[in-house]
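Researcher: Predict the fold of TIGR04283 family arsenosugar biosynthesis glycosyltransferase.
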Amino acid sequence: MRGSVADCVAGVSLSIIIPALNEAAQIASVLVRLDPLRRRGVQLILVDGGSTDQTIALAAPLVDLVVQAPRGRAAQMNAGAAMATGDVVLFLHADTTLPEHADTLIANALSGDTRAWGRFDITLTGAHPMLAIIAAMMNWRSRLSGIATGDQALFLRRDVFVQLSGYASIALMEDIELSRRLKKISRPACLRDKVSSAGRRWEQHGIWRTIWLMWRLRLAYFLGADPAALARAYGYTKAS
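Model: Structure tokens for TIGR04283 family arsenosugar biosynthesis glycosyltransferase follow.
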């Protein structure tokens, strides 16, 4: 029998928030992999951004709550966090898999008063040998800079998320923007246990082309570029 959220490991309850849009092809398998955590009391919240496929129907039996929100990761994640009951919230992309005992790892990382947030190291799945190097560079850069990306399953205390008014309402770089504010509260817990994320974007669009695009967009953001323009350059459109 599934435990309550209050039964989560080490007295720290956890809510996992998954923004989704037209993920019918994979959402059931993603959520099934999270079922052991759910059985241990972790709350699963799927936030749909206007799917036109069967995402909601397939997800509903496998989560504790389905929330509908305006499309956009920041808006969707904020909507999910507003419904979360856990002491800690974790934001998980629909193509990312957590370590088996992520709940224990997070509880240990946030024990005491020194850390308010954290993220996991990442490995990228796919056939191209460069994906392992890209993942290693992402982990190194994050550990050096204290900045986490959405692929790394960012987690933080819910009261801190509320204190900061959540994600900024921007079209791209919302994870970097939040990380910069969180760094003023504490350095992140950089967990060496790895989440697994699909490397399909790099493989579909070309490894070097995607690396160049990501670095160019990140530099432009730090120089003050409009996140909406960066989102268009990244490939986000209202129609897609």
